[in-house]
What does this fold into?
Amino acid sequence: MVCVAAVAVLVHGREIVVAPVSGEFSLIQAALDTAQPGDMVTVRAGTYVERLTFPRGGDDVNGPIVLRAQPGERVVVSGNNQSSASSPHLISIFSLSHITIAGLDVCSNVATEADGGSAMYLEGAGSDITLVSNRIYWIRGMHGMGITVYGTEAGPWSNIVVAHNEIRDCESATSEALTFNGNISGFSVVSNYVHDVNNIGMDFIGGEAGFPGGARNGVCVGNTVLRARSLYGGGYGAGIYVDGGRSIVIERNRIAECDLGIEIGAENAGWVASNITVRSNLVYLNDKAGIGFGGYASNRGRVTRCEFANNTFWRNNELAQGPGDFHGEVIIQFSSSNIFRNNLVVVSGKGELRAILDSSTGANVGNRFDYNLYSCVSTNVLFQWRTDDYEGFAAYTNAAGAGDHAGLWADPALEDGAATNFHLLPTSPAIDRGDPAYEPGPGECDFDGGPRVIGGRIDLGAYEGVPEPGLHLAHAAWVLTLLRFRCIIKKQT
It folds into this structure.
């Protein structure tokens, strides 16, 4: 169930009401055609078989044009389970700014191989677009996508907010359920729920022909992606994928039961994905891999200067397919100068921990592994570093040029991993064992939104824990603040 957020919009103009019988208009498009900057189009309950295109946006003086469902009512924009020659998309925005779409069900479209077909489609350039608390489903066909943002002009899309939406049951292959592709600078993808789609869940792309600039300067925070599995090429759809994006923070997301959890890559030759921060995510029970980074072949792009910190990886490679091109908990391909630290990695007894590397082709150059904790029910975990295999953690850490500085092999003492509760018990060896030089970034917190450092040194994995025998003072203050907040909420309700 997606969390529906309240949308507060300052509207300077009039409210235009759409309703099947008693509204000023009976069709949404007719209302949009008359809406001016600052106007709000409020749609009453019903099913509207329409394909909508915004003829204009808002402006800096009067505010956005808002298209919203009447709060508490279900408004369905439906493609009637058909494709269309007029537009392959259900809601389209072409090079406009200052638009908000909130609270709609957008569904039942049939995409075509030639044109695709998205529930919500942005193309060109513009700024200040907000898509919030919408539900998108039953987008069928080939390239049946949920939310698509294509930056195709010399100027970028900017200030794009996609928050609290649900995208499900979409046939997005060979594309993605939610995609930012091309000249997009400045975006927030927050608290969305993407599930049961037949390819990649979320994708941030740079380097494709016809899409200048590349997706950059964005955040992907607090999302849940479940069961994003590709139906082609052996099935390697990631829950969250950065393909050539730059300067993006991927933080506090939950990814499970996908082909792959998180992938940072660069598919296009000569293109580099860089300055990606992947931190405090929960990645568990994915079919083939927890995380992978790097270009996938010597003639493709590269990944450099990225950081993977304080993530919890738990029993990925659930299909237990053994050695292969992309199977294991942590996989490295063509990349350089990246750091993997403070992570908690629990390997499934079905699988293995592997790094796919080939030093002869320069695949692994200057990548660092520091202060990570590894665990497995079996001691015969295979570590593959460049071209060499090591049976067990001791062999791996003792090998010249390999190993993990200050890494641990230990039971992480989780509250209940089998129930996907990955909080640390007070006895966990992961507490206060992170890199002592690690300094949290501005606003950085653990998966629960609590302090990222308690007691002066960061813990391993996505959560900060509290060690025995008692609370750290910083944590005690946080708990008191939380209790006060809950009391206030209780009194108000």
